[in-house]
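quick one, 441 residues, struct below
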Amino acid sequence: MKDIEFRSPGEIEAFQENLLQDALAYLQEHSAYYRRMFAKYGIDIAGIRHIEDLVKIPFTEKKDLQLFNEDFLCCPKEKIVDYITTSGTLGEPVIFGCTESDLQRLAYNEKKSFACAGVRPGDIVQLMTTLDKRFMAGLAYFLGIRELGASVIRVGNGIPELQWDTIRRIKPDTIMCVPSFILKLIQYAEENNIDYRSSSIRRIIGIGEGLRNNDFSLNLLGSKIKEKWDVELFATYSSTEMGATFSECEYGNGGHVHPELIIVEIIGEDDMPVADGETGEIVVTTLGVEGMPLLRFRTGDMAAKCVEQCRCGRYSYRLTPLVGRKHNMIKLKGTTLYPPAINDVLDNTDYIDSYAVIVSDSEAGTDMVTVKVSCRYPVEFDIVKDLKDRFRSRIRVAPEIEIAGKEEVYAVNFPAKSRKKVKFIDLRSGSGGSRLQDNKD
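---
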């Protein structure tokens, strides 16, 4: 049977609506949380027949997962074979339980995503992500690579020396990692006379950070990697809550949806769907999840849908590169921007070792943005002026710059109990006083 992603938009929509009926019936029977919601709002799931009918159902938010975590579980705990956690808005992590069926679904999802990015049976993928610390991502990638019939090297994150030694010994063709780490790999190679351009690597699949602008051109980070290392670059978008991945194909025009796994709505400020092509918040409904399925879950991520057929032949809609997180929007000196725009400038400044972006309220009631940076090596020019010039040329406005020691910045990046590096700290009163924002799970 022809892959649903290559069938007509009408067929894809009808296919998803049939799966939606199954998902709603499953929630009605097995989910304490959603049964309570349906009863509270008088929702008859028989009346939710089309995707546009989803607007009749309230959203699920991350705080709901945190406050009523166990009520989302739709199966006996004896069926859970793997426990995963993701960060919560109220400080404590959210627990997700995966059944054997859910792990098979994850493997299928990543098999399709890797294939979309050009990985084939017999290829060798060096996995520079952790499989421990209760993360879903590394486990999902491992399962998907196996399902695809490719080989996997579980090196984990960091340690450039070990990464290059592994590349030299096993000769993988694909790297999967956080894109900014590639610059550290390149730096290590240049400092240690490693001819990385002649290595076996021909493809890099990025996670957790963007590689493209909204027009699909490479952003500063993507451009810098490409200038240094002429390999194929692929960006992906995923999260623990989705249990699905949006991966670019070889044309790099957005992340393709797998229609059998997830339904995506894009909503505006009025909480109603926006027109295709308009930017809004990504809202997802998972399909085929047994342990903890979600209905109309607000991700907080901002992007747009692309619905025209891709040059690769797929009709399944795509998501543009993320603009940022809805609640992290910044108004700096009259300009609206999101942290990724600031990160992109800093990630591509050679002398920056580490940084933290701190947003707070000013006396005038506007947003104050301070960037705390540490330097990789001593410089003889005016760092503050140089950084402000870089910001103005890229995003038209410049935040306040504060130079600090490496240990001071690292203490901000790695607060107690945090599993991931924190780059964005929101101290505005509307944020609840202190919101730490790290990479997506």
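Residues 432-441 have pLDDT under 50 and may be disordered.
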